């Protein structure tokens, strides 16, 4: 697809007198994103209850299904960003995503209206449950799929679409304006998630599933309406191609040129370089990839203007460097996945349903709303660390971020291990109380045990995530040039998807192994008979192993830094020193 340079220049550098773009478009975009967040996140906390109650699934299978749903949503976020940047543009991506989410939530709402879309309920003691038909299962899976597609297009593109409206190189305060927009956007996201896990969950608990699923559908109607009303005022940037395409082009080009001997010394003129490039030749690490940027036949491989004839056969030195950066950060990135797995504890909502959740005699916290404790803990820690600890620690470390990214990641993993130990101890106490009270066969009985027992572990999970994730993003930022700064968010999103997949696999394996021979599974729906505490101890062991793996990766990375290769792009660390903490948060 040929781009029109004049049109591109207009879209990217519109003047202040332009009738399109500007601050007037931002409310439409933020309302669209906020409504999508409230609607989709409001469905998740109680979804396992809905599936086990109305689709006659056991808790382990329902947990696997929800984990896979979350994984698909996160993977589609990366795919949606790629399709948006390469083919359809951000406006169309957000529009398609909003429509898809709306249809998905309408289908989900219809499953609460029409009994034909659900199996018949189980008998009193759940011995004569009716199986879910293929059509009934297809209906709810279809709704999940559409909601995932919607999230995959809306979430990665909304922020960038708003930035497109404010991009104005003639405005000297443009950078400050965009930073202010980012602040408001992320603040709206935080408020949206908080409303989702409190208000929407409360509606589901007190007004039933029809109203509880109908409200998110109405929010998506509002989201789509507001977004389309603002359509005539948006700047719609032509898709220019995704930066991530280069990551795929490098290994393909290197494989096509696998016959080249990279042990030989080549002159600088033998390497294909981007215009005005400061990089004259590739580095010696991951040397096999250097084949991708070696010019064999200039007449065949280069156009008259000096560009590569086939980017899948010849890549620039910069592309090869970026690919090497990606391979360098992969080991450290992988250390955060187990922490993300431990954050999504299966059946935690069943634990909370069995304890006393009353704040006052008249008000009871919904079980699905306890996730707000982790969110509040994360937010409070961000503010406390940034305003109180950073100035204090900086005096001793000399680092503008207080402590190094490696220290943040390591402390985050340790705090996560402590939180997982607390969850195992708390479940052991809860289960013993249930058995001693004679409730072993009554999973719906409420124990004489306060829900405040669960607050410490949930709060620690928030601190662990804040420390580890911000450390991860700061480390990744330091390795890449500014043009690839969105790569950190993409890697984090992919990490969430992988964590969801590992969580679903782990639940399936544990449930299958522990239920052999007719034994009660550790993850039985009746958690008083199961052994969720054993599963928590298993998770603790895996987190400890992961921490040892983290220490090994730190040793490798430290040697890499001492070799003088802390960043394959030397300018990357200087570019991000001032703002990496803001973007990480």
Automatic annotation (TrEMBL):
<dbReference type="GO" id="GO:0022857">
    <property type="term" value="F:transmembrane transporter activity"/>
</dbReference>
<feature type="transmembrane region" description="Helical">
    <location>
        <begin position="209"/>
        <end position="230"/>
    </location>
</feature>
<feature type="transmembrane region" description="Helical">
    <location>
        <begin position="365"/>
        <end position="385"/>
    </location>
</feature>
<feature type="transmembrane region" description="Helical">
    <location>
        <begin position="325"/>
        <end position="345"/>
    </location>
</feature>
<comment type="similarity">
    <text>Belongs to the major facilitator superfamily. Proton-dependent oligopeptide transporter (POT/PTR) (TC 2.A.17) family.</text>
</comment>
<dbReference type="GO" id="GO:0005886">
    <property type="term" value="C:plasma membrane"/>
</dbReference>
<dbReference type="Pfam" id="PF00854">
    <property type="entry name" value="PTR2"/>
</dbReference>
<protein>
    <submittedName>
        <fullName>LATD/NIP</fullName>
    </submittedName>
</protein>
<keyword id="KW-0812">Transmembrane</keyword>
<keyword id="KW-1133">Transmembrane helix</keyword>
<feature type="transmembrane region" description="Helical">
    <location>
        <begin position="134"/>
        <end position="154"/>
    </location>
</feature>
<feature type="transmembrane region" description="Helical">
    <location>
        <begin position="94"/>
        <end position="114"/>
    </location>
</feature>
<dbReference type="InterPro" id="IPR036259">
    <property type="entry name" value="MFS_trans_sf"/>
</dbReference>
<feature type="transmembrane region" description="Helical">
    <location>
        <begin position="184"/>
        <end position="203"/>
    </location>
</feature>
<dbReference type="InterPro" id="IPR000109">
    <property type="entry name" value="POT_fam"/>
</dbReference>
<keyword id="KW-0472">Membrane</keyword>
<feature type="transmembrane region" description="Helical">
    <location>
        <begin position="62"/>
        <end position="82"/>
    </location>
</feature>
<feature type="transmembrane region" description="Helical">
    <location>
        <begin position="489"/>
        <end position="514"/>
    </location>
</feature>
<feature type="transmembrane region" description="Helical">
    <location>
        <begin position="406"/>
        <end position="425"/>
    </location>
</feature>
<dbReference type="GO" id="GO:0055085">
    <property type="term" value="P:transmembrane transport"/>
</dbReference>
<comment type="similarity">
    <text>Belongs to the major facilitator superfamily. Phosphate:H(+) symporter (TC 2.A.1.9) family.</text>
</comment>
<feature type="transmembrane region" description="Helical">
    <location>
        <begin position="534"/>
        <end position="556"/>
    </location>
</feature>
